[in-house]
Amino acid sequence: MPQWVLFSQLFARSDFNTLIQKQNKIDLNHFLFGNLLAVSPADLRDTAIVASLVAIAIVLFHKELQFYCFDRLAAQAAGLPVRWFDLGLTVILAMTIVVAMKAVGVLLVIAMLITARYGLFMGAALCTDDAVGDRDWKCF
User: Fold this and answer.
1) What is the three-class DSSP state of 34?
2) How much of the chain exceeds pLDDT 70, in percent?
3) CB–CB of 85/74 below 8 Å?
4) Interacting residues of 101 by C-beta distance below 8 A, sequence separation 6+
5) Which residue intervals of 39-81 are DSSP H helices?
């Protein structure tokens, strides 16, 4: 069974279970889809702080991050601290997820993570070698 079928079945079942339980005070819709109207000024401040920290980190370590993301082993051989880059990227991702959860909800945060990776694989699939050995014109 494909994973998306299982995910949609479990999602429907959990939504149905919350509808039939009257004593349940948890609002599943706000957890899954977020509540954009309930975002407070403190949440906006936290979002601005995280966004500025991420932007500063990307600007300061742009060349190193590009080298690390392109080829991790070559970056390690060149002497870059790849474990710190692993930790830093994980912390940046975690901070972004935590800040985004309240506004857009779990489903859109998961979609944000999955869509980026899927787009990378689709872009890589377009960059195929043709019979002559040259790169395809669609390659980015």
Assistant:
1) coil
2) 64
3) no
4) 34, 109
5) 41-60, 62-70, 72-77
Cα–Cα dist 32/26, whole Å: 11
Residue 126 contacts by C-beta under 8 Å, 6 or more apart in sequence? 136, 138, 139, 140
Q: Which amino acid is at 101?
A: M
Q: Is the pLDDT of residue 53 over 80?
A: yes
- Entry pTM: 0.64
CA dist 34 and 52 (Å) reads 23
* Rounded Cα distance, 135 and 123, in Å: 13
Q: How far apart are CA 120 and CA 76, in angstroms?
A: 23
* Beta carbons of 65 and 92 less than 8 angstroms apart: no
Residue scoring higher pLDDT (30 or 69): 69
Q: Say if residues 33 and 105 touch (Cβ distance below 8 Å).
A: yes
